[in-house]
Amino acid sequence: MKESTLTYSQAKQELEAIVSAIESGELDVDALTEKVRRASMLIAFCKEKLTKTDEELQKILEQIQ
């Protein structure tokens, strides 16, 4: 899925699937490397999304006061 169309919920769901796959122990080394790489990107995406949301909420709250 392209990052430009990725939502926070989709990223979280994909991360949960990756964690389940890793915990199952059924991934080979090549797949594991790719999954960890993708998880790293998804974590960065989610962190950025949460930071932007927090900043927007702070601005809205400041306007209310």
UniProtKB/TrEMBL annotation:
It holds the Pfam family Exonuc_VII_S. Keywords: Cytoplasm, Exonuclease, Hydrolase, Nuclease. It comes from the Bacteria. The keyword Iron-sulfur does not apply. GO terms for molecular function: exodeoxyribonuclease VII activity. SUPFAM superfamilies: XseB-like. One of its GO terms (biological process) is DNA catabolic process. Its EC number is 3.1.11.6. GO terms for cellular component: exodeoxyribonuclease VII complex. Belongs to the XseB family. NCBIfam families: xseB. This is Exodeoxyribonuclease VII small subunit. It comes from Petrimonas mucosa.
